Structure formats: structure tokens, C-alpha cells
Amino acid sequence: MPQWNQATIVGVGLIGGSIGLAMRARGLAKKIVGVGRSQESLADALKVGAIDQAATDIDAGVENAELVIICAPVDKIVHLVQQVDRHCQPGTIVTDAGSTKGEIVAALNKGLKNARFVGGHPLAGGAKAGPKHADAGLFVDRTVVLTPTAKTDQAAAETIEDLWTALGATVVWMEPKEHDEALAFTSHLPHWAAAAVAATTPEKWLPLTATGWYDTTRIAGGDAALWRQIFTSNRGHVLKALDKFEKVLAALRESLESENDAKLEKLLNDGKNRRDAVGN
Asked: How far apart are CA 173 and CA 186, in angstroms?
């Protein structure tokens, strides 16, 4: 039996579209409404079956929803949740998929009248954006972080945990600050480094790039405006991660300049061992 009569997804790109496909594949909602500004994107979401109905008016799109999932840039999420709160039914569960949590959760811990908000972040994605590339299996065996606080409705948080578990994910609960500190190292710093490597490479040598360069810089192809928002939203933690990164870079450089081959090999092995520990 469907858990919800209507679920609304605000932002039906890769993540939102994949959530819609995954929910439909598992029969979790009788109707899935997609809300967005782009008629083309909404048409694509309808075509691939990620949503049953499209709307450009968020107010109308959420008025009958029992569940609302916000898949939007981090600097838009607070405003969108507040807008949903003004037009949804009392008790509606609202969650998000934002890459940072501290500022979002702090802003939404107060002032909501109808919505029960639960901060969330699926650690999943892909090289290509848009609903055309949505995948019902995107979240299978992936981690989703939920960031409830003492002010979060416990039943709502457990419902969102059940949703992600049904979509195949492993759910981890963290404090918003802890999430942002961790993601600065595991997500935001890697993108920063990938962008730096790509930008440093002279254009005349691009024909000589191969697998190593492609693997290292793949994520640098992400939307620059979106990543600028993520970096600025998590500025403090990203700067601390960069401090540690720069110390390691300095140690690598010093070992090379001083011809300390043993130290250089040790530092390279430190990186190798940390990477090998992930196991994939």
C-alpha cells in the first residue's frame, strides 16, 4: 500500500527525478507531483516517469501533499521550505537534499507553522544532470545523512529514515555541524582539488590527458554556481579542511625539494592506505 496519497518533489533534476522514479518503482505514493521553473525539465521528468503531474506554481503543488522533498541549491532551500510551510497542510513532512546542513537547519528550527522539517543529504549523484539521467537505483547501497535536532519532530525523522531505507539507502543520523565538518573533507575538498588540478593544466597539454587526469578532475565538471553556493554555505569547515590539505601539500613539496625520497614515499603511502581503506 502507498504510504502517501501525494508526494511533491520541488526540483526534479537528477536527484529529484531519481527520488521520483525510486518512489514510483516501490509504490510509495499514489501520486508524485514535480514542481519546477523549467517547463522543459518538467516535461522530461514526465516523459521518463519520474512524476505523475507537473506544476510551476509551488503553492498549488504542495497544498495537498503529505510529503515534500526539496531538491534545490543550498541557498534556495530555506526560502522554499518557508514557502511550502505557508501553503501545505498542517503536519506535512518536509525534507531536503542539500549538501550543507548547519545554516539550513538552524534557520528552519523555528518559525514553521505547518511543516515538520527534517534535514537530509543523500550522498549520491552522477556526472550528468537533469531528469533525463534519473535512475531509480541511484540510492541503492548509498549513504543518506539525516540531521535532526532536539527541535525536530521525532516521528517525522523516523518517517524520512523509512523512506530512504525503502529506496535502498543506508541512513546515518548526525548533528548538522558534524555533517558539515565531515562533508568539507569527503565532498567539498575533493571538488576544490579537482577544480584546481583542471585549472592548473595548461590548455596546450590537454591532448595528452588520460585516465588519471579524467578520474581526478571528473567532478570539476559540476555546475560552478552550485558549488560556489556549497563552498560559501560551509565556509568555515571548508577553510579548515583546506588548512590541513595545504599542510600535506607543503610536506609533499618539501620532501621533493629536499630530495628526501623516504619521506616522499611515506606521504604517498599515507594517501594510498587511506584510499585503500575505502575498498572500492
From this structure: 17
Looking only at the bridges linking them, the beta strands covering 67-70 and 120-122 are unpaired
What CATH code is carried by the domain that includes residue 17? 3.40.50.720
pTM, entire model: 0.91
134 and 114 within one domain: yes
C-alpha span between 16 and 275 (Å, rounded): 30
Structural contact between residues 90 and 30, judged by C-beta atoms closer than 8 angstroms: no
Count up the domains in the chain and report the number. Answer: 2
What is the chain's length?
Answer: 280
Position 28 scores a pLDDT of 96
Query: Which three cell numbers mark 165?
Result: 531505507
The pLDDT score that the predictor gives to residue 1 is 45
Secondary structure of 78-138 in the HEC alphabet? HHHHHHHHHHCCCCCEEEECCCCCHHHHHHHCCCCCCCEEECEEECCCCCCCCHHHCCCCC
Amino acid found at 225: A
49 and 126, same domain (yes or no):
yes
